[in-house]
Request: fold
Amino acid sequence: MDARILLFVAVNFAYLTVNGNLISGGRTFSIDYKNNCFLKDGQPFQYISGSIHYSRIPRYYWKDRLFKMFMAGLNAVQIYVPWNFHESVQGVSNFSGDRDVEHFLDLANQTGLLVILRPGPYICAEWEMGGLPAWLLEKPNIILRSADPDYLQAVSNWLAVLLPKVKPWLYTNGGNIIGVQVENEYGSYFACDYNYMRHLRTLFRFFLGEDTVLFTTDGNTDKEMTCGTLEGIYATVDFGTDTNITQAFSLQRRFEPRGPLVNSEFYTGWLDHWGDQHAVVETQKVSRMLSEMLSMGANVNMYMFEGGTNFGYWNGADHDTRYRSVVTSYDYNAPLSEAGDPTEKLLALREVIKLFREVPSGPMPPATPKFAYGFVTLKKVGNISSLLNTLSPQGPVHSQYPLTFEEMKQYYGYMLYRTKLPRDLSEPTPLISPLNGVHDRAYVSTNGVFLGRLERDTILVINVTGQQGDILDILVENMGRVNFGSKINDYKGLLSNLILGKDVLTDWEIYPLDIDGVIEHGWPHSDHQNSPPGPQTEPSAGPAFYMGTLQPNGLTWDTFLKLREWTKGQVWINGVNLGRYWPARGPQQTLYVPGLLFSTTQPNNITVLELERAPSNLHILFMDRPQLSNTETWS
Reply:
């Protein structure tokens, strides 16, 4: 054989083809227990990573965000895979468009970023039900995150779809995934089921191989580490600026006497709930603590590096002493803002990172351009109760007693429950949810007249008057399922009977509302485009739709929508659900609007569902800056 051919074979024997791409076969990533570090291709390696959630950022912006993270000096990113984002209907998986996780992995690889993958199946993340799909709750007694056979079967089916997709992206296969988390903060869950964790370990090893670095992440307490860790899976911890570094890592050392120090979630900021103050974590504290951990040789992932947005209905909720829903913005006070803009915190952290590794040369990419499109005046379309033929074309389901969202197989959004007053009520009569069964907020009307609301944990009674046979409508809003703790079996709708005076209300008509579907197909604008403008329809109290248009001006720049003096509701632009607004409760006052949603040639359709009371002027305002705190002063 020709010597040149022999040389070519010798140099290239390690190269294999995966997905049509040449990759190096001799690559390794492992744990060096002797020297307490990771080894990448046989050399000591320390990762400096940041969390970014592709599910909270439009695909169009993925490359921009990843490049900014690379320019900040990171050598890795950490991502969650939300199961319910990909399999919202049982057995039907979706990995296209904004759900194309393989495209995201490819972009990260092209950018020069390694990936730490957290595929769950539970992720927490302040995401709806912690990433678990709501259809699991169709089994009424299912024990989530345990060895419950129904749950294990669903998990096994899901991981059999997901893990083969990510296997080619493992670093040892030529990709960029250097570690894979098994479950997430399992020690914080009540079940403490080692058989469940063993089952997951078996699945991950079967699909990803024996050489893949698997790890767990838990809070820095004995209980969390005891229930969250398992032999054969490397144990890491998470903590923020309010924690003593030495004590936190000493706890990791109790469970992993040798190996690299790892803080898998170092909190650069924090989340907001409706009704809270906007969370801020000081840049100086984050910078100082990052420097200390890196000086120790620790591997650090900053959570979040960019948070993004809880578009649509994807926000989660917490329930400690009471139910608290997470706001639409997931800005998180992170180094990159909700809109992906560099902040002072990012620049400060890059200066720290420069002390420990070579940072790419060149300027930090600037913020994306923003534009204040100004005021738009809306007009009323109609109350929900008058639009049921459009919003629920299949008609109601009849039931003697209320059915939950899950029983109706409508997992998100809104449902309307309708019955009739069983007798005359000349005096105010209490309508009571005696078992706190309104999940999460109910808007009550009789004969189309708004009476008020019931609210989980806080408002359990409202007074009703009327005549026998009057129509009683109760619109129930799912405000996001609990994403953390023991109450993630979070059923929605009317979970128990309502009592009116001495009567248990029965004979319900239950309307599943396909609001997103009809708006995506052009309603209400398509129904009104040929009608004359007519007189301005006055706003009224109670759930109602409003519509307007933003005329094209040749720009598709990001903007922020402010609904000043509106109360609470949901907004769609050109059929895309931006998320919830609730300026009356705060702290968030504006919604982030990605510029890519706008058309430069066609009128941009705006649809608002206001649940309680619209302002008299029906104005909304597009601004060029966010307002995430109701204590800020803006014009």
